From TrEMBL:
Its cofactor is Mg(2+). Residues 405-414 have a biased composition (Basic and acidic residues). Monomer. HAMAP family: Topoisom_1_prok. It comes from Collinsella acetigenes. It holds the Pfam family Topoisom_bac. GO terms for cellular component: chromosome. This is DNA topoisomerase 1. Residues 239-244 are annotated as: Interaction with DNA.
DNA sequence: GCAAGGTC
């Protein structure tokens, strides 16, 4: 039997399909792992997929260092054994200007600043990371008479293959092994690769392993150092790494630019133009006046103007080209613009890929291979998604010339829908991403959009004004792909000499804006541009920076802690803070791969560079600890104590582990505030962070998967609730000839807010209220149902509602205002909706599972 | 308790 070892399951499956003599390969399982059995020229073959790297590098357990005997380990009875370490590490571990100050017997497993120099020079072992896969691999290897490594054709692939082979060698030391190198999972490539088997490239694998070692050594040493400089308790690791630290530095650098930015004043003159049946924006031909006097002079001419004359009408049409196919980075950027973070995009994409909706999601390629059945996919989409059917029909009728991106690789096709599966079974996030991918795919097969731009030149009291409007005259690809499309701005049909009304002309003082913060999508693109990380790692690295609290918010801001970390590393270990470390590492690895340098030399050189920085780092440990401590306190600050003026900070209760806000003046000052549970809370900065009503801090609350809101932390503050506010009079009571007032209440127990009539016993009139937002009475009643109208101050501004949830006006609002009105549903109505959604989801899940199972057994 | 790289 021949054993084919691929990097991942899909590759193992594809290879089996492409090499199999006749008919489909047989799906089989060895201990729950999928393997594929087939025959080649009558010979029995089996292929299996790994799960990427199956071994993980780590520092050995229980290895110690002694000045005289070097590295050693202790047996269980305490016997000293020389450790099996590579020659290069037999040297004194730490070439410091000082003599090593440590006692003998340093254990590198303990997190101690004193052991960091030894960690820098520690040997590295590789531990099994995928025990199940290794078990299957060994099981099959024992039964095989030859083994073919068919992992991806790149540096990491070669390393993954070499690691797999080392596991095979443990059970089959003499089995012949060879390597198949294919760069695309298509018949011609794969058969050619298996017809021309080569040897595993040990140098290339060594290069990959050097990368692993250097990343681990630098990452572990600096992470331990930062964590220990000011230990913040377990769960408060301050990490550093070759990719994450330069990425953080990008964000910090942008923030510094913003802070150093000096805004410049400018002035704008803008107003409204109107014809009998339409209104449009007009602005002075000089878009920005930098001279205040000139702006005021121009404004004085038009301030009281009521009419303007059209001087010229010009029309220009421009074409917008359809987008190029998605690779990982462009998908992440497009999804980020739709509010899905890169990390979440990858989690959802993985699930869509695993259930057969989309192609493999980790790709650099942006050119569809010739072998891809574009027409078949469009047909599949057409029958699977009713919403896409009309546009699919158009695509099928057209010439279907796909666009091409700049990056052409042959490993996988660009990310595209498979045309399989029923999109109705997907959940919210999946559906959103699937639609983006499906619509992008269709757009790449369509023609350009044509936008007609109309420009009006208008004379207003001798001053030149303009108005512009963009109208999509031929949607082209936009019919499939509306993402990021600006709304039409239609100007009325006007001709030279026509006179229009003008009004509301204003002189506005403005200031230039600092450079924008990175969005998560932009940061992923910037990382790619600078060679930081790979398509598979960038999203998770950004996410990591959020979990260690170096970053916050979106657009991305660095925390004080993040800035302190960059400052410290910039001063004492600058190499880790720039993309150059990655560039130099790449150059080193190329030399190792070419056989011009060795793993030992390259890794030792890197160890020496790190060791050279340790002296200064250790010397300044306490300074850094203080800086981190100050930064953490500053990050926790939510405001100033209204009672004693000291800082109010987020604290964690030792007893309940819940969060609360407390005064730094404790125990002298006892001011505390509760913090809503189940939401992510962050302080608001500047004026927004202080409640104008009561002086307590205002905070931003981010509930899981719903809109963030802001509120004052003081539960007794009038901004949280106006108790016993009269919002109107009871209509039912009035009809019955008595008087009843409608009063707003808040339940002490549940915290729910509602309106109830003072004669509730008799009329039973009560209305629910939204859970948050300051309430104002208007004195008005709803024209549709006669219930009172109130204003609720929400995060998105004031919101007028009729308190009667059964009011007929609600239906209209739901359609016209979308989310805003949806929030006005009664809790009962909400419950029904929630139930429906859950039921739908459960049904959807069941269907998906059924389908997948059905599909699997069919294969 | 550390990184970054694969992929589940």
């Amino acid at each position: 039997m021949k054993l084919v070892i691929a990097e991942k399951n899909i590759a193992a499956q594809k290879i089996a399909q492409l090499l199999s003599d006749a008919g489909k390969p047989k799906n089989d399982k060895v201990y729950n792992t999928a393997v594929y059995r087939f025959t080649v020229d009558g010979e029995e073959w089996v292929s299996m997929g790994l799960a990427g790297h199956i071994l993980a590098p780590d520092f050995p357990d229980e290895i110690l260092f002694d000045e005289k005997q070097g590295w050693y380990s202790l047996t269980e009875d305490g016997e000293v054994l020389p450790a099996d370490v590579p020659d290069g590490l037999a040297r004194p571990p730490y070439e410091s200007k000082r003599r090593p100050f440590l006692p003998n017997g340093i254990n590198i497993k303990g997190w101690k600043v004193e052991s960091l120099p030894y960690l820098t020079w520690s040997p590295i072992i590789k531990n099994p990371a995928e025990r199940e896969i290794i078990r299957v691999l060994k099981n099959l290897a024992k039964k095989s008479d030859s083994v073919i490594i068919a992992t991806d054709f790149d540096r990491e692939g070669e390393l993954i293959g070499a690691d797999a082979l080392s596991m095979v060698r443990e059970v089959a030391p003499d089995v012949p092994a060879s390597r198949a190198r294919y760069s695309a999972l298509i018949k011609a490539e794969v058969t050619a690769a298996f017809d021309n088997l080569v040897e595993l490239d040990e140098n290339l694998a060594d290069a990959g392993e050097s990368r692993q070692y250097i990343d681990l050594i630098w990452g572990a040493v600096l992470t331990r150092y930062l964590t220990l400089a000011k230990f913040g308790g377990f769960g408060n690791v301050r990490s550093a790494g070759r990719v994450q630290t330069p990425t953080l530095a990008l964000v910090v650098e942008r923030e510094r630019e913003r802070r150093a930015f000096v805004p410049e004043d400018y002035w704008q003159i803008r107003g409204m133009g109107a014809t009998a049946d339409s209104e449009f924006k007009i602005s002075h031909k000089t878009p920005r006046f930098t001279d205040k006097a000139a702006a005021e002079d121009a404004f004085s001419h038009v301030e009281h103007a009521t009419t303007g004359t059209i001087v010229e009408v010009s029309k220009r049409s421009r074409k917008q080209q359809p987008p190029v196919p998605f690779n990982t980075t462009s998908l992440q950027a497009a999804a980020a613009a739709e509010g899905i973070s890169p990390a979440r995009t990858m989690r959802i994409a993985e699930s869509l890929y695993m259930s057969g909706f989309i192609s493999y999601p980790r790709v650099d390629n942006t050119v569809y291979p010739r072998s891809l059945d574009l027409e078949g996919i469009v047909k599949g989409l057409s029958s699977g998604s009713p919403a896409l059917a009309p546009v699919c029909k158009k695509v099928l009728a057209g010439p279907m010339k796909p666009t091409r991106g700049k990056t052409e690789t042959t490993d996988h096709p660009p990310i595209h829908p498979t045309g399989q599966g029923d999109p109705e079974t997907l959940d919210g996030g999946q559906k959103k991403l699937y639609n983006l991918i499906a619509r992008r795919f269709l757009a790449t097969l369509m023609g350009p959009a044509t936008i007609e731009n109309t420009k009006l030149s208008i004379d207003v009291a001798g001053e030149p004004f303009t108005a512009t409007g963009d109208v999509l005259v031929d949607p082209g690809f936009r019919e499939a792909y509306p993402y990021g499309l600006k709304r039409d701005e239609q100007l009325p049909a006007l001709a030279q000499g026509d006179v229009i009304d003008v009004h509301d002309i204003k002189l506005e003082a403005k200031q230039t804006e600092p450079p924008a913060r990175y969005s998560q999508g932009k940061l992923v693109q910037e990382m790619e541009k600078r060679g930081l990380g790979t398509k598979s790692t960038r999203a998770s690295i950004i996410e990591r920076l959020y979990t260690v609290r170096y970053l916050k918010n979106d657009p991305i801001e660095p925390s004080q802690l993040g800035m302190a970390i960059i400052d410290a590393l910039h001063e004492f270990a600058p190499r880790i803070t720039t993309p150059e470390m990655t560039a130099e590492l790449d150059a080193d690895m190329t030399r190792v791969a070419e056989g011009k340098d060795t793993q030992e030399h390259v890794v030792d050189h890197s160890r020496a560079l790190l060791a050279g920085m340790l002296d200064a780092l250790i010397e300044h440990k306490d300074d850094l600890g203080e800086a981190i401590s100050d930064a953490v306190t500053a990050d926790a600050k939510v405001g100033e104590c209204p009672k004693c003026g000291k800082d109010l900070v987020m604290k964690t209760s030792a007893k309940t582990r819940g969060s609360f806000i407390g005064c730094m003046g404790w125990p002298d000052c006892d001011v505390t505030y509760p913090v809503p549970s189940g939401v992510k809370v962050s302080p608001l900065e500047g004026e927004a962070g202080v409640c104008p009503e009561c002086g307590a801090p205002r905070i931003k609350c981010q509930p899981f998967r719903s809109k963030a809101y802001e509120q004052c932390v003081n539960p007794k503050c009038p901004t949280n609730f106006e108790p016993d506010l009269k919002v109107g009079e009871c209509k039912v009571c009035a009809e019955a000839g008595r008087h009843g007032d409608l009063i707003a209440h808040k339940s002490e127990k549940s915290g729910k807010r509602f309106i109830r009539c003072t004669n509730y016993e008799e009329c039973q009139v009560s209305y629910p209220l939204p859970a948050r937002g300051k309430l104002q009475a208007t004195g008005e009643t709803c024209p549709e149902c006669g219930a009172p109208i109130v204003v609720v101050e929400t995060a998105r501004g004031p919101w007028r509602i009729c308190v009667n949830m059964e009011c007929p006006s609600k239906e209209k609002k739901t359609t016209s205002r979308g989310r805003g009105a949806a929030g006005s549903k009664t809790s009962a109505a909400k419950k029904t909706t929630a139930k429906k959604t859950t039921a739908k989801k459960t049904a959807a899940k069941k269907t998906t599972t059924k389908k997948t199972t059905a599909k699997k057994s069919a294969e």
